[in-house]
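QA checklist item 7 of 12: single-chain prediction sanity check.
[x] sequence parsed
[x] length recorded as 1915
[x] structure emitted
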Amino acid sequence: MARLADYFVVVGYDLDKRGGSEGQGHILQRFPEKDWEDNPFPQGIELFCQPNGWQLVPERERPSFFVSVLTDINSERHYCACFTFWEGLDNPQLPKAEASEVDEDEVPGLVQPAQVFAPKSLVLVSRLDHIEVFRNCLGLIYAVHVDSLSVPLETVIGNLLTCVIPVAGGSQRTITLGAGDRQVIQTPINDSLPVSGSSVAHLFRQLGIVNVLYLFCAALTEHKILFLSSSYQRLTDACRALLAIMFPLKYSFTYVPILPGKLLEVLSTPTPFIIGVNSFFRSETQELLDVIIADLDGGTVTIPECVHISLLPDPLLQQTQTALSMVLDPELEMADHAFPPSSTQPSTLKIQDKEIRAVFLWLFGQLFHGYRWCLHIIRIHPEPVIRFHKAAFLGQRALTEDDFLMKVLDGMAFAGFISERGPPYRPTDLFDDLIANQVERIRQEECSPHKVMNHIKELAEQLFKNENPYPAVAMHKVQRPAESPGHNDPKNLAMFPLLDDVTVQLFIDHAAAKLQTAPPVVKAELKGMVPSGPPLGDIVDRHGHVLANSARRLEVVRNCITYIFDNKMLEAKKLMPAVLRALKGRAARVCLTQELNQHVLQNRAVLDDQQFDYIVRMMNCTLQDCSHMDEHGIAAILLPLVTAFCRKLGAGITQFAYSCVQEHMVWTNMQFWEAMFYSDVQNHIRALYLEADGGEQSIASRGQQESGPAAGGQELLGALELASEQSRLWPTLSKEQQSERVQKEESTVFSQAIHYANRMSYLLLPLDTSKNRLLNRSGIGDVESVSNSYVTNSIAGSMAESYDTESGFEDAESSDVANSVVRFINRFVDKVCNESGVTNEHLKALHTMIPDIVQMHIETLDAVHRESKRLPPIQKPKLLRPILLAGEELVMDGMRVHLISDGREEATGALGGPPLLPAEGAIFLTTYRLIFKGTPNDPLVGEQVVTRSFPIASLTKEKRISVSLSMDQFIQEGLQLRSCTFQLLKIAFDEEVASDLAEVFRKHMHKLRYPQHVQGTFAFTVGQSGKTLVEHKTKDKNQSIKTLSKNLVKSAKRTIGRQYVTRKKYSPPTWENRSSLQSELDEDELSVSEELDQGSLTLSSTIRSSDRQTMSNVVERACCRDYQRLGLGTLSNSLTRSKNEPFRISTVNRMYTVCRSYPGLLIVPQSIPDSTIQRISRCYRQNRFPVVCWRNSRTKAVLLRSAGLHAKGVVGFFKSPNATSAGPSQADSTSLEQEKYMQAIISSMPSYCEPSGRNTLGGFTSTHMSTSDSSDKLRQPKIGALMKQVMGGKEDVPGTFSRGALGQRARVISLSQPRVSGKARNPPGGKWGTIRSSGRLSAYNPEVGNRLSSKESPQPNGGPSEALFLRQQRAYLYIIGDKTQLKGGKQDSFQQWEVVPIEVCDVRQVKNSFKKLIKACVPSSATSEPSMTFHRCLEESEWMCLLHRVLQVSVLVVELLDTGSSVMVSLEDGWDVTTQVVSLVQLLSDPYYRTFDGFRLLVEKEWLSFGHRFSHRGAQTLASQSSGFTPVFLQFLDCVHQIHLQFPMEFEFSQYYLKFLAYHYVSNRFRTFLLDSDYERIELGVLYEEKGERKNPQVCKSVWDYIDRLNKKTPIFFNYMFSPEDEEVLRPYSFISNLKVWDFYTEETLSEGPSYDWELVQRGRQERLAEEVPDKPDTTTPKSQRHIVWPCYDSRSRVVPDAITKLLQDLQSLEAELGLPPEKWKDTWDKIKANQRAEAKLENRPSFNSSLLMSSNLSHQRRSQGVYLPESGVGSSINLAMDRETSTTSTPVAGRPSTSTLYSQFQSTESENRSFEGILFKKGALLKPWKPRWFVLDKTKHQLRYYETRQDKECKGVIELAEVESVIPGTPTMGAPKNIEEKAFFDLKTTKRVYNFCAQDSPNAQLWMDSIQSCLSDA
């Protein structure tokens, strides 16, 4: 029973203390005067009566009522019901004397009213929450006062204060206050369930479902919540509703439903709260940053940015929202029904309120079901002590990742929930029943909302019944005051009287006396055992969290353990990788612990070394994947095992497994140890109370099986049941029995504490206590949600209470280790002993014991550590030594590392084949390479050797990584090294490698990669000892050359010095940046460059005698030999000036003074003197003026190269001479000289000298062209179109070739058309059709291919301008320039040159594209993202687009040269793209460059002599490190590779030759590709030493010599398909669909490393063969002849050689066997070819050089083809495709059969070859008519040929059936033959185009289709 009201208080306005604007309230009277003993009077009531402050108001307001809630120090809630009314009083503000004299019109401001009203509150304080009763009682008192009823107020108040009612139980109590009133008070049945009235329903009405759910989650996860409303009662209701839906959790933080304005600073408290504030104070709440504000009036919830609310886990959130919406808005479901039910009204508010609460009850049932299975009961007497095992609960529910549940379980509310509901013997309520009996139902119904609704309705009914057990009785009778008495007449309302306290007190005393005499009411509490509900176990299985095919995996684990204990180590070793993989799954881990448990006898299992090692490895692997929480209890089950398994090390010394499994986070987690401890204590206490039944006892002492959460159901149930039973019996025991039990329990806990102190010291003290390994390792595992103390990097750091160790740095001395461990154990012991009630004496004893325990353990460990050091180390694979080149030396000897697999899948076995990676071995750093050599970790391929290496000079990126290897749990530091030879080494250092050693390795690597000077590279240091790595002043053997180069450099410096002084603006831009290349001597010279003697400045044109030696050397250079071959003049010529030669070799640059990056000798027009050249050179960037580098022997057109013009030069160059120039006159004169230079080049061309030579685009006949085949006529227009593609219109985005609009036709523009439309000039990048009609041109767009400076051509008057006609002539010289450079400048129509502006890819683009290409070809880690596939990455790199652009421009230039125009390539600085284009053009045009000698000469001339900056672009030295690696030369080689693929019979060298160059141009093994120009090579004395230094034969300094030598020994570089045609010009397809990814980028050979260092590979193979030869012949088993070839491991070319190589090898081995002197392979090959030719002559067939070749090789290869644009609009945008109709008619030159007669050797009689023939109509190309042709289907040659007529012998065209994709019925198109039925049409689709045919009738068509189809299927 409890008092209805504890206190009655009257609070009024305090007239004495009113100061400023705010008044104050004070208590006028309170009853009873003295406090109740059990319930002191709450302070500060006056603040809560008027939360907005006490104020006087001018008009009387209506009485108000609300309830505040105050919480006292014992967290008891007091309900303060405030009833406030207003009383009139004279205005205290008016001065008394003047009141009557004030005249109305004198008042300037506001009139003060004479009477004001002050608030007065009647307050009722109670611990019960009966709002309506309070409202009625206070209203009654007010009515008695206002209506002046006859009842004295004292009586009413006395009765109120003495009224006693029951708290709960569901009874009804009628009360009366003695004023003729009567009220029924209804008590709830069960007071543990909150009473909510209809407040929850109101809250949802005000805020909506989602908002309330946010608030609900926020309250549970301890956020701050603030309600705003202008109504106080609503604030109270909302707060009450929020608490009601949190049931069964109770809110334990600050709870103030109505906060007075004066206390607003409470809102900045750091703790969570639920507070209500009047909207009046809204502005003050704005600056609260971390408070969630719910505005009840506006219906909004505002969550600040910095607050993250964790929401319910997913399916639950959805289900809860659905259920709520079905309660609140039942119509929503029916809203779309065609026949909605007549009415689906939601329930009444009161019922709805309970339904909502039922939803939340159901939700908590879902969240907490099974919680009782995770309770540990650690004391039963005198009071139960219960702990919750959070990790196990989360693990079982598979919700460890769930943020919401984690926070709820960590929160105060849940702690309260456990302490309240944990005890097993107590009264139960609705929630307990739900958890115990309805979980199964919830689980089955959760997916069907309607069943859920039924369940919720049932729960709601129970909740409703709890509040309203009986039907409502209308017995209330309460007096209300008469309607606003005297509201208008304030005089008649009396003040509330002072009450007589004596009278009231008498009532109270009288009631108290009565109570004492009455017998006590004893209400039996119904206690009982709390049922636990179904266990958690099988829930996880339902969610499918058990691994797929886990049974198989468990079998593997079991077998492996059996093998280990049966000592079958080899079997175990094979299974090990599979076991370690399986242990990723939880089931396998549990299985492992169970299996190991069976092998423990009497707590001990002694193993031998290998067994021990395997068991430890498995334990580590198991623990590695456990989180620090150990939610699956794996670490818990392993804990007793790690102290059981051991091995004998020596006399009396045993090493236990725990010393090897310490590196896991879980051991440093205090919560883990607590849970373990409690679980053990529970088992022991259970054992204590079980009757001493033997079997049970032993189970309990074995203990640990049920310590995990997945403990056997029976066992755990036992503990709680037992406790419940004991609690029930407790009151019946005698005092002695009680104290005996308490004592026994206490000592059980104490003994366990000692046991755990030992256990913890085992796992926390490292084996080697001198260097505490645990201290300096970074935390493993996910440490997110652990309290900070566990996150510090070391156990000691986390253990130390003093946080001075936060830096993680401590003296790792054993004493420190000991101290920190002792501190950690002490903290643990303090916590658990306090919680489980251990006596203080025992606790002190423990504290003294712990340091001794630790010390003893350290001493034991020292002995174990000493002995374990003597153990033979675990067999790690022995380090294999790499084979080194002659002169290559080790810089750092092998460091043991693991090579880890990267994103390439082949080696990991992911695509089938053995897992070669990860592998264990060593990394070696030599002066030349970085080499990994080792063996795979997988024992099945353990005998293979894995090698990965790359030249140190090719390292492009180095990145630190940390790696966790699957076997061990250690995280190792590693490096990821990327090389531009498309290799990636991902290594992790073994734990035996000290970290500082790894750092030394990195430093050495950097030093070698970026030497100070190019002389520090391997090519220079080879053969010297590694100590004198970088020495600047080395004595040079070839003294004379050194002095010569000094002289050269001096004179060059002087001249350049003069340039610096005189003309600043033309100073070559990059020479200042030339790193530390100059030696000290040179620097001195430069510093005095201002005082150079004037004599040295005269440049004589004759060669001074001192330089004769230079000249003879220069003449030997490659360029000169080539110039002579091309007939571009010899040196003698140029000196004696024979005038009939158009060109001469100029020596103007012999001192490298004109242009440092050009060679010494240059080809210039005969008529241009050297002085002009010097002037012209200044217009060009880097002084690289135009020079001739090749001449077409047939058309005599020349190819020139230069850099782009300086910006000023461009405009001057293009201005017509008479235009007024803004620049200085000097610029004009230079511009004139430039024009003269151009003119001189043009005049050198024979076609220019002849009158008929003004070749128009149409006819184009000239004496030089007449010999050429007629197909040239057809080719003219294409050049224009080609140009357009190369230049691209505005819309032509680079890289979108081959994606344009299909069928875009080039527009026909007649010559008379007045204005050329803009569209025609720049069509969108689409398809280009050609407009041809029987070889003659119809009108051709005059702009294409002509003056392409994009100016409007026609005259303004609209007639065709004269210029328009003139422009049709072909220009003599085309200048390929950069679009961006060629802005501005008018074009003079009579100039004979023309500029083709193109977009070039700048160096940055190449660099970025290459980076992406490397990442695509050699990804650093495997990814499954679809956006990261190889082809997607390749596309994004845009490498193919860049190749396409370079090839496209080159093909255009080839075309132009071949049709007799000269071309000057003038792009960027003239040393990147220019070099690529010029080299490719020569390669395509001149067969000589496709031989070994020619290609070498081409590279030496164009790349080396003309100054491509190899060192700078390859970032070879420290100075160029920042510029990064830009593979311009690699791009060129890739282009050559693409051409090689398309024309395999035109190249003497093989693909391997190109790869060899690609590898060695970055490897720095040879000096060939070092330095940036001939000038620098001379300066270093490198250029001419190659001839002089042949003393050291094994060190080749030039890559060319090396290739020559190697080519003599082996045919590796030779292309057997080489059978060139005379003067063949190649025109490759360049669009992206025709380009292939070069296999150089993707292939690798793990067996021997890169094959480009030939001698290494050979020596490696010999060694391997030597190993494979057995000592004595093994006769037992026949040796299999089969050999498995693994794509990424074996070298395929060696293991599976091509037929010819194989035959040559066999010949060699036969020669060796017969003892004959070996013949050179080349001689053999030449003999065979000669024999074959002779045979061919005898048989009188046309010879085909290499008929050794199978024709199948050639089916897809191309021979000579014109460059065509397709006839139909189908195909790629730059379709340089071959059109069969014309290509087969081209007549071979000089009567020699071309390759098109390849099949002619098979020709037999005609009839045999005609499988099927007849007439078909064929649709011609674009705009051509249908024509009848005689078609022959030839099965033998697999062709469909066609002729003009049946008699015709000359075939008009061939359709290769190999290219046919399908034959399908067609439809008649425009211009088809008339009167033929539709079914007679059919289409033949090839890879290149679609042919349209038409037969005489449909049967005929069917016959043709069938015949072709059968041909296809036969093939």
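[x] summary fact logged: The first helix runs from residue 45 to 49.
[ ] second reviewer sign-off
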